[in-house]
Design a protein that fits this description.
Length: about 220
């Protein structure tokens, strides 16, 4: 069994994967209460599928970008659990989770995440060999800069407010917005990606795992 945890934003997600299917999944809006709500929710989810901690063979964790504080809550929790159970951790960039949920398309995909102060974190993908493959580097734009940066038809997906979605549609006809349901991150996809990493031995040493977060001035750091 693999337990996946995503604390990138105000929404926390958990999923349990058994190698062939997602047997348990939940998500909720935690606001600023990640520390208070994470551990009890993990316990409830495990109890709901009759999973004892000793049956967990690995953890998947979303690395960001996202909120500095919330990312560290999730990463610290997973490192502690993995140390106690002596099992590996697989870190996955948050926007890769969002991309994995998108249907196949000949258009390029831009996965986005609101970063505060009217900014958007962006990562481009192209569909290759039956999966979305990241292209280039993670970037941060103002909303206006992002709208201006897209020069060709592009699928855009991510957790955006209604105001952001309306602005982008009105200011660039090349932007093809995914439906709101397709813009939600599902932790089940994180679990699938992490399981593949576990099977292939792509393990992240805990000492090397660090969140991808956004500086207040808009640059990226790890």
């Amino acid at each position: 069994m693999l337990l996946a945890i995503d604390t990138s934003t105000a929404t926390i997600g958990l999923a349990i994967y058994d190698g062939s299917s997602v047997i348990g999944e939940t998500a909720w809006t935690a606001g600023n209460h990640h520390t208070m709500t994470l551990a009890p929710a993990v316990l409830r989810l495990c109890e709901s599928v009759d999973l004892n901690f000793e049956h967990i063979k690995g953890f998947g964790i979303a690395l960001g970008p996202g909120s500095f504080t919330s990312l560290r809550v999730g990463l610290s929790f997973v490192k502690g659990m993995a140390l106690g159970l002596n099992v590996p951790i697989i870190g996955v960039p948050t926007l890769d989770i969002l991309a994995a949920a998108q249907p196949r398309s000949t258009l390029p995909l831009c996965a986005v995440l609101q970063a505060g102060r009217n900014r958007i974190a962006t990562q481009y993908y192209r569909y290759e060999k039956k999966k979305w493959v990241s292209q280039g580097e993670l970037n941060v734009f103002s909303l206006e800069e992002f709208a201006q940066s897209i020069q060709n038809p592009t699928l855009v997906s991510g957790e955006l407010t209604a105001e952001f979605r309306t602005f982008l549609r009105r200011n660039n006809r090349d932007i093809r917005m995914a439906t709101p349901a397709m813009c939600l991150r599902r932790t089940g996809f994180l679990a699938e990606i992490a399981w593949q990493g576990l099977v292939k031995g792509r393990i992240n040493p805990p000492s090397e795992l660090a969140p991808i977060y956004l500086h207040t001035k808009g640059s990226l750091a790890v």
